[in-house]
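$ fold --in a.seq
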Amino acid sequence: MSVAKHFSRKYLREEVLPTPFCPGCFNGVVMNAMFKAMEELGIEDLRNFVFVSGIGCSSWIPNPLIRADSLHTLHGRAVAVATGVKLANPRLNVVVIGGDGDLVAIGGNHLLHAARRNMDLLVVMVNNMVYAMTRGQLAPTTPLGFRTATTPYGNFEPPINVAKLLINTNANYVARWCVSNFHKLKQSFKEALSEVSKGFRFIEVVAPCITYVVRYEGKTPGQKIKELREACVEVKSISEIDDVERRGKIAVGVFKKELKPGYVELYESYASRAREASQK
């Protein structure tokens, strides 16, 4: 039984299958890991979920593919819209799925401040390393030396290490996995979607674009997965990240895991104090 068929009754809209993604696209791996996590958590339907996305290839995962309420927003504004959804109805599980260009370049300000506030959202960044939907231009996460549509002789701009940046915010949960780390990625989804999870949770998934990264390298999706198995090195503490990256590898793992009160809880406490003060 195919993955799409297995999950279609619960989580996928069968009328839009097959997916619009390029053959071999790693977005399917991300969907599979998330759906397996939901199934293992006993989530039978998504009526209490809202998925929010911006513009980009991975933003097509929630809308139109996932069988749930979703908002397909302006480029870079997914986190801001998701914040409004969560504050309007705190009982909802609000999940943002977007790409590196959408969440970091256009929407970087929203991402940082949602993490600073420890806003009760799960943000999944599918890092395909380029602006894939618009034909592979340089993105803020493109590794040094990568050939793109706008840097045909190799990228010379230092990339943003998004997960490392968010470690130093007030976020409760920060993780990074490659698509080759499927079981660890699934486990991160389970942690971030569990009933006790709260606050800002961020999962980066390194998933190089098949068309504008992998093909440019002259490789197949299978070859890229094998390469990522060697390149992605799990660290046990954040102090190891720099050492791994100095060796030209990709540091992966759960970099931060806390249970501080999320923004919704803090806001409700503040509103309660304000009401008490107004009655005196």
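$ fold --in b.seq
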Amino acid sequence: MSLRQYEYALAVAEAGSVTAAAELLHVAQPSMSQQIRNLERELGVTLFSRTPTGSVPTVVGRAFLREAEVAVSASRRARATARAGADELVGELSVAVQMGFGTRQLPGALGALRRRFPRLEVTVFEEPSSAELERLGRRGVLDLALMAACEQTPDDAHHLGDEEFVVVLGAGHRQLAADRVDLRELEQEPWVRFDRDSALDGVLLDVLRNSELTPATVARVSQTATAVRWAAQGLGVTLVPASVVPHGYEHLARPLSPVVSQPVIAVVRHPAGPAETALLELLRQETWNESAALALVS
């Protein structure tokens, strides 16, 4: 077995077929098919069920792919570490962000990282579920994650600052006259909410319960920008981290009284490699503790 075969199997699972995976990796389809067959023969199991619509991992295949993903990630980190020099860092860095966190700070840190190490390949994705971020971290898939809470040891978890939340109101809303909004003033308002397993929806439910309020849901969305824009149009109100409010909508955002905030924690894989260590240091240099919410209405 080889890591290349692992990468092929992972690509087939991601793309849904051998043909699509071959195009994704820029290899010949017959060659990829042969490598998958050789891998299955060597393992003595069937990794994929061939269906009219594509290749679907079997139960055994899913278990194998979980471990293959860990092995491939470890190999990439090992290559990056071995080739890291004073002025050169190559390899891949996988970063995950709890949706809504680091919207202003992460791009600057990543830009600085790429300028310093132009041969480093960085993949970043947003994850709405904090539980899923924890799971991916435990599987060893992520190099660095930004989230609100974690079960890591202090050596792995680094508190960068805090993210304040704001309520976004429709144009002409009566509460725009206030510097800060008491949630009880929104008791009769419908809410633009996030998906049920989203950490952001969990924040809203927690703060409303603390105010003994039950939200009336008018819509559910998956993206913070969508929630802000729909709220701005008067569909309902929404609650988002202050840093995600798009340019041009700041005048419709108000911080809450009492303040609603969450810590921003960077969780780095252990042991940390040179790429994630460099990114962590750049993130520390960003401004996290300023009251972004207050700046919106100043």
